[in-house]
Amino acid sequence: MSTTEKKGERILHTPPPFAALASAHDGARNSGMPLELDWVRDVRVNRSAVERRAATIGTRRTVKKQWQAAWLLRAVTDIDLTTLAGDDTPGNVQRLCAKARQPVRQDLLEALGAADLGITTAAVCVYHAYVETAVRALEGSAVPVAAVSTGFPAGLTPFPQRLAEIRASLAAGAREIDIVVTRAHVLTGEWEALYDEVAAFREACGDAHLKTILATGELGTLRNVARASLVCMMAGADFIKTSTGKEPVNATLPVGLVMTRMIRRYRERTGYDVGFKPAGGIRTAKDSLVWLMMMKEEMGERWCKPELFRFGASGLLTDIERQLEHFVTGRYSAAHRHPMA
Q1: How many domains would you assign to the chain?
Q2: CATH code of 64's domain
Q3: CA 227, CA 186: separation in Å to the nearest integer?
C-alpha cells in the first residue's frame, strides 16, 4: 500500500481495487506459554498518549472512490455476522445465514467487478441453541459457525457447566467458540486464576478457534485491559475480543490500540500471531474503515484479513452495502432495500 500527500492530508491507497481480497495466513496457531507474572505485573499504559493516538486515526487518513469500495468489501469479509437477541428464532437465524453467504447484492458485485471473488462474511455468530440451525443453513459454504459460550454474557455459571457448554456447541457443529472471562479475576488481580480458566477453555475447544471476550467496558482501566489481553494470549487464545456487546461501553479505539499493541508485544516475544476482534457499537461503514486503518498501521496488512481480524457486528453490513450502492449509482438507498443484516 502506498501513501500519497494531497492538500495536507495523507490518503491511503490499496493495490488495484479488489485485487487481493482473498489470502490466508498459514502461520502456526498460538499454543500459549507458561504464565509470566513478572511480565504481566510490569505492564504499563500511558492513557493520555493512547487517547491522543486514537483521536488521530480517523482524522488524518482517508480512502476515497474505488479504493474505499475495495476497503469496504474487505470489511465485509471480516464480519462475524451476529444475532444474540432474546427474541431470536430459527427463521431469524436462517435469514442471517443466507445474508452471510451472499452479503452484498449480486448486481452491486457485478458493477464493482467483484462478482467472482466469492465474498462471504467471516462467520455467523449465534447462541448455542441455534448452532445446529446455522450449521444446516450454511451447509455447502465455507462460512463457519461461531458460538458464544461459557455463560455468555456474564460468565458466572458454574465452571463445569461452562466447559460442558463449549463441548456441546462443538458437538452441534460450531467451529469457533467465543468465551467470556470472569471479570473478577482481572479486577482483583488473580492472574493465575484467569490463566487457568482460559487454558481450560482452550483445551475444551480442541481444534476449534478460541476467541476470549474481555468485556473491556467492565475492566476499569486500560492497564487491566492490557494485562488481561496478555494473560489470555499466554493461555492460548487464538483471538482476543473487546466486548460481548451487552456492556454499557463496548469497542472503543483506545481499547483497540491497547489490545493490538499487546498482540504485537506477544508476537515479538513468542513468534505467535493472535487475532483481534472489536465487537459492539460498530455500526457504520465509516467506523469499519477507521478500525481497518488502525489495524493496517499498528499491525500490518495481514491483520486486516479475517484470519487475524474480525468485526463482531449485526447492523454494520447494512450500512456498508448502502455505501457500496452509493458508489455504484451515486444515490443512497433506504436500509430496507437491503436484506436482513
Answers
A1: 1
A2: 3.20.20.70
A3: 8
